[in-house]
Amino acid sequence: MTIQPWIRWASMVLAVLLLASCSVRFQPPEDSSDTEGGVPEVEPIGKRTEATVETEEPADEERATVEPQRQSGGKVPEAARGLVASAESALKDGKDGQALDMIQRAQRIAPDAAAVYYTLGRVYRDKGNPARAEQFVLKGISKAGNDPELRRTGWAMLAEIRAVRGDAEEARKARERISGS
User: Residue 149's closest CA among 118, 120, 178, 116?
Assistant: First the structure.
């Protein structure tokens, strides 16, 4: 059995590269006269204290955009609004799967918009999955911020979904929250 010449050369080149990488010498850090024995102090990995943890405060312009979103329930951008409208149309045409795809895309575009979560809840309610619908409506209520109209809409949807699930007591509690929003 003969070995191809190019395999032999490749093997030798590989061996030389491996040996060369093993022969690299580690250079110790320069002596530091301010530490004991010339070795600088190093913080161990995973052992951070409050004094060593750096926190980054959001910039003023970032803070200015986040606070109004929390207060307004997350305005729905035009692109997401178009997807929501298309999803509504698909729902009316009985295309639940297509509607779900569009509204999930809208959710990725506007993750803080309560109206998008309410639409997702409506899609799942119409598909016969009230448990999943309830989850999305609750998420929408949490994203509604200080917008009383959005909060009332969410509590009304939640009351309806809980009534469909047969949970009359929780539906009553949700209806009580409508007027308190």
Answer: 178
